[in-house]
Design goal:
Layout (H helix, E strand, L loop, with lengths): L5 E8 L4 E2 L6 E2 L3 H8 L2 H6 L2 E11 L6 H14 L5 E5 L5 H11 L7 E4 L12 H11 L8 E5 L2 E4 L4 E2 L8 E2 L7 E3 L3 E3 L22 E5 L6 H9 L5 E6 L12 H10 L3 E6 L12 H9 L2 E2 L5 H13 L4 H8 L10
Parallel strand pairs: 1-4, 1-5, 5-6, 6-7, 13-14, 14-15, 15-16
Antiparallel strand pairs: 2-3, 7-8, 8-11, 9-10, 11-12
Length: 339
């Protein structure tokens, strides 16, 4: 790690910078002054030089929308040449969505972007804020990282492979279907054979629509109105269907398959994921899944819900049709290739 590099920290809001209010914790400006107050001189001397850029509108990440992904990416693009690496401070609730979206909007890249936050606000007893920030700053100086990562709880995860899996633990993030990229122990460890190669950064930041991608969660006894609502909405461009096991739908449901077939015939891309977090989609392993292959449902393989949602937003906003979207999910690593 190299503490002679310059790092830009982009503060978007989230628990890490929240302060108490009558309504509970809320995002607050002035994060840089507060964090430097908590870093003693000995620690600062061992960290890279960093500056904090606060977004004009700080948000609780549960309020984040796709347009906010573009705001962060635009800030990164505007400052890309002036810094050696970047840290994005973000709330944990939708951190994995933003990290995945950034990974699709900036591909390839020649510098690291580390997304982090905390479960406990800075300044509160037992807060994880300082550790997560200092770890992220160190990872952001790496000469080996050329991708978007999440650093949390001493783990370094690929940004579009991560999910928030715990609500009250400090190791809240993990990557169900991909190895960790590194970790902070006594020494900093990076697993070089897993890392992406760097190349000149390419930014493709579209104008996102908040409503173009819908979610269809299957459950026992699902009714026709719940099936048809996302598939028949006028602004729908793509739908993520959450099915069972390796991608099995209730094909005996009289509404589901005809509704899917109709939507696909109208140009809507349907991507099939599973309720299960670990493992692959294998449409065709059972006869119910084979029906999906026949009508053109796209198997999501082992991609996370967050990455699939961000990827579909990116692909549809960039103007890809069903064939282009399908190609984006059938590459060797569907969670890692942007198109």
């Amino acid at each position: 790690m190299n503490n002679t590099k310059r790092i830009l920290v982009i503060y978007t809001g989230g628990t890490i910078g929240m302060v108490p209010s009558d309504q509970g914790y809320v995002p607050a400006p002035g994060f840089e002054a507060r964090v430097r107050k908590h870093l003693n001189d000995d620690i600062v001397q061992q960290l890279p030089e960093f500056e904090v850029l606060e977004m004009d509108q700080l948000i609780d990440s549960s309020n984040a929308v796709p347009a906010d992904w573009a705001r962060v990416a635009t800030l990164l693009q505007q400052h890309w040449q002036q810094y050696d690496g970047f840290v994005v401070l973000h709330g944990t609730d939708t951190m994995a969505y933003t990290a995945a979206a950034l990974s699709f909007m900036i591909t390839p890249m020649d510098k690291p972007v580390i997304v982090t936050g905390s479960q406990i606000p800075l300044g509160v007893i037992r807060s994880d804020a300082v550790d997560n920030l200092t770890n992220s700053l160190l990872f952001a100086t790496s000469n080996e990282l050329f991708e978007v990562c999440i650093c949390f709880g001493n783990r370094l995860l690929r940004g579009n492979r991560a999910s928030k899996l715990k609500t009250t633990a400090l190791d809240t993030f993990d990557s169900p279907n991909f190895e960790h990229l590194g970790k902070m122990q006594i020494d900093v460890e990076l697993y070089g054979d897993l890392l992406l190669r760097g190349d000149k950064a390419d930014f493709c930041i579209p104008e996102f629509s908040n409503s173009s991608v819908k979610l269809l969660m299957l459950y026992p006894g699902i009714t026709a109105d719940m099936i048809e609502a996302p598939l028949k909405a006028a602004d729908t461009r793509a739908v993520i269907m959450i099915s069972y096991g390796v991608g099995n739908p209730p094909d005996a449901n009289p509404t589901l398959i005809p509704a899917l077939e109709d939507a696909i015939s109208r140009g809507i891309a349907v991507v099939n994921l599973s309720h299960c977090l670990w493992g692959d989609i294998e449409q065709g392993a059972y006869s119910t899944g084979a029906t999906l292959n026949r009508i053109g449902v796209i198997g999501g393989r082992d991609i996370t819900l967050e990455a699939a949602f961000a990827k579909l937003h990116w692909l549809t906003s960039m103007g890809f049709d069903q064939n282009g979207i399908s190609a984006g999910f059938t590459t060797p690593k569907a969670g890692e290739i942007k198109a």
